[in-house]
Amino acid sequence: MVSQIQEKQAPWQRQLRDVVTNVDELLSHLNLTQEDCLIKQPFPLRVPWRFVSRMKPGDPNDPLLLQVLPTAKEWLKVPGFSQDPLAEAQSNPVPGLLHKYQGRVLLTVAGACAIHCRYCFRRHFSYQDNNPGRAGWQPCLDYIKTDSSIHEVIFSGGDPLLATDEYLAYLVDKIAEISHVTTLRIHTRLPIVIPERINKKLIKSIIRPKLKCVVVIHCNHPNELDFSVKKSLDQLAAANITLLNQSVLLKGINDSSSILKALSEKLFHYGALPYYLHLMDKVQGSAHFDVDETTAKTIWQELVAQLSGYLVPKLVKEQADALSKIPLL
Ligand code: SF4
């Protein structure tokens, strides 16, 4: 029975089932030993093999490894870093829906991710309380229907593309029925970490003539982009989907203008425009990745000097009480 279920799984679902969750297995695969790794903790290691395959064996400072490897630094309690740095609990009028910015709402379509990024601002978010399931979406849809200022619905998570094609098609159909919603935006890291997730069936499930579809991928370093990612982005572009990228500025990973320049140029050749470069949200457990505002501005100005304007992402930070992201320059 189990093997029958597994046989029916799509390639991306098999990739998802086989993610690495064991620190020792990851380190031994990369010919590394590390003493300050966290073996057990509430936000455990989780990384697909596709992402691991782009790491450099023997390099403890590999920028992809650093994004996923749990370390003892996460136990540090640093003033100014909290469990809910954006106070999202206050913008959560209905379970599953966040309404913070004017004109758009965010639905937490899936309560999990294929990868656990150590700096994730939702690493302490209660997905259990915000994952209504198919039957539970009606209050969210009613909320959107009653506010005609909402023109854009954002699928977020977790990673919304972890939902099945059928589930996504159901939700997109419901959203397309709401007359004032004109744009569907999907925030996802799956085209990077499990590129096989992008296939014809998925694209069919998210495209509707009435809705302009925007996919915002999340890539922090040029080494995350390989031919398999290019193939997945090509499929989205061929379906007329607008492709943007957001990155988080992370100490020891991409805090240099030369790395960010290479990222912007590679993204462009892969069909995605750099959209946002975020200052990291100050979530508890991630202080060792923090880049201060002055340094961030210097890096960004160096970037401006080296790139065409359309390849420079906006440098922004989020603030709990702000009505939009705050540009730093
Ligand atoms: S993919 Fe996005 S939501 Fe998921 S852990 Fe990484 S940063 Fe967080």
Concise overview:
The protein folds into two domains: 2-75, no CATH class; 88-327, Aldolase class I (TIM Barrel).
What does this structure look like?
It is a single chain. The chain is α/β, with parallel strands linked by helices and 329 residues long. It contains twelve helices and nine strands. It has helices at 2-8, 11-17, 23-29, 49-52, 63-68, 138-146, 165-176, 190-193, 200-206, 227-238, 257-269, 293-306; strands at 97-98, 104-108, 152-156, 183-188, 212-218, 242-249, 273-279, 314-317, 326-327. It has a nine-stranded mixed sheet. β1 (97-98) and β2 (104-108) form a beta hairpin. It is globular, with a radius of gyration of 19 Å. The model has no long low-confidence stretch (mean pLDDT 92). The structure holds iron/sulfur cluster (SF4).
